[in-house]
Specification:
alpha/beta; Protein-Tyrosine Phosphatase, Chain A; two-stranded parallel sheet; 6 helices; 9 strands; 24% strand; elongated; disordered C terminus
């Protein structure tokens, strides 16, 4: 799984995604993600090096590299509402199952998708470890999370408390 952060420069974002040669692109919040990725009013994007075309109800994306005329069709998946604990756990489970089905997944990082991504990575990690420190695990992944995201992750992981020993601080 590769994470791509939205930087504001759409061409750089899409070139980075194309370079990963993904089978699947995962975003949270379909409407906001499509706007952030340049598809607010149209189904096609043309940049100097890359052209893009959405089809099949925004579920497939044709990416064409203009340098060598190579073309690739990539599946798009949108993890909707991650506002509640239940939504976040559900989205995390969906992301885990999607990652098992395909080999090259690119996750577009937004605040919501970062929390989903971290929860899915942390849930996978706790399956192989008997003791687990949420703060250190998040830090080891090299990602920055807010206090609110950390608290939400911790609450979600308490669901697995019977299986593991979460010894991170219980208060933030």
């Amino acid at each position: 799984m590769v994470c791509v952060t939205y930087t504001g420069d759409l061409q750089k974002v899409w070139i980075n995604i194309f370079a990963q040669n993904p089978d699947l692109i995962v975003c949270c919040d379909k409407t906001k993600s499509l706007m952030d990725l340049g598809f607010s009013a149209k189904l096609h994007q043309n940049f100097d090096l890359v052209s893009l075309s959405l089809k099949n109800s925004f579920r497939l994306l044709d990416i064409k590299n203009r340098i060598n005329n190579s073309k690739r069709t990539v599946a798009m998946e949108y993890l909707e509402s991650t506002k509640t604990f239940e939504d976040l756990v559900s989205a995390s489970n969906i992301l885990c199952s999607l990652c098992k089905e395909v080999t090259k997944v690119v996750v577009i990082i937004s605040c919501e998708s970062l929390t989903v991504l971290l929860l899915s990575l942390l849930t996978e990690r706790i399956k192989s470890q008997s003791k687990f420190d949420v703060f250190r695990a998040v830090r080891d992944l090299g990602l920055f999370v807010t206090k609110e995201q950390y608290e939400l992750l911790y609450k979600c992981l308490l669901h697995h408390k019977q299986e593991i020993d979460i010894y991170a601080n219980t208060t933030c």
